Amino acid sequence: MTQFASLPWAAILFSALAMTLIVALRYLATSGLFAWITGRVRPGLYAGQDAQIRNEVRWSLASAAIYGLPAGVVAWGWQNRGWTRIYTDWSDWPLWYAPLSLMLYLLLHDTWFYWTHRWMHGPRGLRWGHALHHASKPPTAWAAMSFHPWEALSGALVIPLLTFVIPIHVGILGLVLTIMTVMGIANHMGWEMFSRRIVHGPLGKWLITASHHERHHREYRCNYGLYFRHWDRLCGTDRDPVDFSPRP
Ligand SMILES: [Zn+2]
Ligand SMILES: [Zn+2]
């Protein structure tokens, strides 16, 4: 109890606020960039969606606070109390472990996402909050973090908790967060940035890109995965990626 009371709460709060700001700015910069690119390569794609985009930005900024809070607390504990298994010296673990840790984080996050996402498409899950994400019809590059607070919380805890269990270099952790941010945005932006050879080739059979997640937004009852298609394929919920031209 004394130990709890003696924690420097102001510093922890400051870390949580700083992290919230970082997540919010990262979202605005990256979604803004992809929305701008969309305007160049698919002019008029988001025409008439201004009101929806305002909602997507509002909910995404609320999610930034929910993501920032646990991340900021864990970052403070990592820096000041030696929490987590995040390491900074590449020689702490063999070099071959770096790509393995990347895959472990992506696979475990994907597994958590697939099963919670499937639950969210049951009758209780949609009412619980997932309907908000699907209010974006069709979604835009601004919808990447447009989640009900409950859903944002379920996503926000995964990676901070994993850092307590699975060792990861801070640079690889940055790569995990970059992949999460970029793919989250790209998968909602309404066009495919990868070539047909990738999407419809052997790699596309296992990886999720915009054409795959778009089908989830059109049909609801398929393509629940985040990065990989293996859970969808194993569980019979996988459908082929859509062809984006034209978008209904
Ligand atoms: Zn969904
Ligand atoms: Zn989505």
Descriptive account of the structure:
The protein is mainly alpha-helical and 248 residues long. The chain has 11 helices and 2 strands. The chain has a two-stranded parallel sheet. Helix 2 packs antiparallel against helix 3. It is globular, with a radius of gyration of 19 Å. The mean pLDDT is 95. It comes from Sphingomonas lacunae. This is Sterol desaturase family protein. Pfam families: FA_hydroxylase.
SSE class: mainly alpha
Q: Can you count the helices?
A: 11
Strand order of the largest sheet: 1-2
Computed CA radius of gyration, to the nearest angstrom: 19 Å
Strand fraction: under 5%
Q: Ligands in the structure?
A: zinc ion
| Cα shape | globular
Overall strand count: 2
The total domain count is 1
User: What's the overall average pLDDT, rounded?
Assistant: 95
Helix content: 55-70%
Compressed to H and E, one letter per element, the order equals: HHHEHHHHEHHHH
Characterize the largest beta sheet: strand count, sense, and whether it forms a barrel.
2 strands, parallel
Point out poorly predicted stretches. none
Distance between the termini: 58 Å
Compose a concise summary of this entry:
The protein is mainly α. Helices cover 63% and strands 2% of the residues.
Describe this protein with a few key phrases:
mainly alpha, globular, 248 residues, 11 helices, single chain, binds zinc ion, Fatty_acid_hydroxylase, 2 strands, two-stranded parallel ribbon
Write the layout of secondary structure elements.
Blueprint: H1 2-5, H2 9-41, H3 50-81, E1 86-87, H4 97-120, H5 123-134, H6 149-156, H7 158-165, E2 168-169, H8 170-186, H9 196-199, H10 210-219, H11 230-234
Parallel strand pairs: 1-2
Helix pairs in contact: 2-3, 2-8, 3-6, 4-5, 4-8
Bound molecules: zinc ion (2 copies).
